[in-house]
Amino acid sequence: MSDFLQETRRRRTFAIISHPDAGKTTLTEKLLLFSGAIHIAGSVKARKASRHATSDWMEIEKQRGISVASSVMQMLYRDCVINLLDTPGHKDFSEDTYRVLTAVDAALMVIDAANGVEPQTRRLIEVCRQRDTPIITFINKMDREGREPLELLDEVERELGMPCVPMTWPVGQGKAFGGIVDLRKQQMRLFAPGEAKRGDDDEIVPLAQAEQLRARFGHDFEQAEGNIELVREAAPAFDEEAFVGAQQTPVFFGSGVNNFGVQEVLDALVDLAPPPAARHVTRADGSEHEVPPHGEGFSGVVFKVQANMDPSHRDRIAFVRVNSGRYESGMKLRVQRTAKELRPTSVVTFLSQRREAVEEAYAGDIIGFTTHGGVQLGDTITHGDAPADFGTFTGLPFFAPELFQTVELANPMKSKQLQQGLMQLGEEGAIQVFRPNTGGAMLLGAVGQLQFEVVQHRLKTEYAVDIRLMPCRFTGARWVTCDDAAAMKKFVDENEGKLALDAADTLAYLLTSAYDLRLSQERYPKVVFHPLREHA
Ligand code: G4P
Fold first, then answer.
1. Domain boundary, last residue among 254, 272, 290
2. Domain range for 44
3. Is 200 annotated for ligand binding?
4. Ligand 1 centroid, distance to 223 Cα (angstroms)
5. CB-CB contact of 27 with 256 (8 Å)
6. Do 357 and 347 contact (CB within 8 A), yes or no?
7. For residue 345, what pLDDT is reported?
């Protein structure tokens, strides 16, 4: 087997998703602890500045700072290299989350046993479903009184639109939580609270000794046995192909804070989650081809750009998901969009607690290129010698903003800094910037209100520009395309005042009311109004 194939096959890259407070941070930390990537619980948690959704931009700033270090974590477990990607919890940054989900091969969904599937989880599920991302489900907080396991499974099944396949089953719950039965290994892991222990410390009893378990856990064990029998009849057997094709989700129960049920999840990531698969690229002539992960030439895609924390340096980190080949330090690189060479000042890999210069990386890995510019969200980066018509990876979504504000400059002398700041923040995906065709003030478009606050604050602190944000009449946008040049010209001529170019110079039509879209579609049937733009 080639080295490439071997290295690719041992990669697992997944995102951890949940509604805030379900226990994502805790579980992340425990996965790192169990893999040996960190030694003391509390280190990830400590970096989480504020757990709660907040409308205070100072907190958001702190979170932003923290996320550079903690949003990508690599760990070794058994013979696998596991890349774990965190997703922002706040709904106003959901665009970021969607993009992170384009960079993974599976998702780990954390659900609070008392709350079930919560609104934010629902949105994330939709994105996973669109992309057919396989989902592993972890039902957390079994040490607290929660809902019946059967009821929870039913809800997950309905929300996901796919059957649940329990891999473990809880015995009791809350104060009476006795542990979990591993349905594959036919053994029960007995629950003992505490943050200091590892999986090896738990008492394990084979189901062959069910009498002993019945004696210890009484009714709870018998009820679990009954439920296990019930789901064995009702639920399908675990089928790897169905899971990888997002047709069923394996479900695990546990308690993250008590290090309980974590081992099973980590093993599932290695045993069940898929290694990187081939990815599509589109060439300039519109033709598509597949890039196999073990293909020799290095290629990757930028799914996140983040300004560095030191405001005196305008450098940014472009997070690249490697899609094929091997990255080696010092390698010549090219940005396919511009055909220009990329000369990063540093290239790092993200270990659990630190960044480290990367020696080599394979498909599935995430590496960070520090640059002074020249890279945008969605860019395809290849080896410098890759063919000029390599094409670009598609699928990175930009959502049509739902909120708009116009920018007014407090000091007109700062117009150049404003342009530069907005361009860079736009390239990061922090906000969408639109230039109206008829001139006039620049427009900012966002999906969540907090994005405006962050941009205003960052313009001030990083670019020394004070802006005022003013309400404006626009309530939405659609990117427009049309195969018929004459029809397009007519549309453009008649709507000049409502057209704008976005940061990628793609034409957008700005909506002023809910009816606007319907009326325009009727009036210009040949024009297509897109709610989503994929980076091309
Ligand atoms: P998040 O990243 O999804 O937002 O959640 P996070 O891990 O921060 O967990 C949210 C709260 O739930 C924390 O409590 C955490 O300790 C608790 N938690 C996580 N897993 C479990 C579990 O298995 N059982 C129980 N009972 N609680 C759990 P907190 O009181 O808000 O914070 P802290 O002071 O304990 O850190």
1. 272
2. 18-68+105-272
3. no
4. 28
5. yes
6. yes
7. 85
